[in-house]
Structure of Uracil-DNA glycosylase:
Amino acid sequence: MTIPFFFFRFVFSLENIYKELSTDIEGFVHPGHGDLSGWAKQGVLLLNAVLTVRAHQANSHKERGWEQFTDAVVSWLNENSSGLVFLLWGSYAQKKGSAINRKRHHVLQTAHPSPLSVYRGFFGCRHFSKTNELLRKSGKEPINWKDL
C-alpha cells in the first residue's frame, strides 16, 4: 500500500512512526516510502476508525458508516483470536478499544503519532519492541519491522 502524496497529515504521522522505529528497533532505517505491505504480510493491520476522507478535509467522512465497519473488524478479531497485540494510539482509539478483552489480548496505549500529539508520549513509547516481546511471550513470531 503506497500512501498518496496528498495525505499530508497521515504522511506526517507515518514519518513520526518511522522516527520512533529508528530509536526503538536496532538497525531500522527510514525506507523512503509509505509502502507498508511488508508489515501486512506478517499480519500487521493498521486500522483507522474512518477509512476514507475528502482530500485536505480531516474527518469529512466521519459518521458515514466506517465506524460500524471498523468496530466490527475489531470485535471479530477480539472474539476469534487470542494473543493479539493492539496498539491504541490516541484517545479516540483508546475509547474504541475499551471493549477489547485484556485477558485474551495485549493492549498498549499512548498518544497518537500526529505532529499535534507526538510529544505527549508517542515518542519513546517503544511499542514496536514491546509488541515483539509480547508476541514472543505468547509463542508467536515477532514482527520484522525493518521489512518494508
Residues 1-9 have pLDDT under 50 and may be disordered.
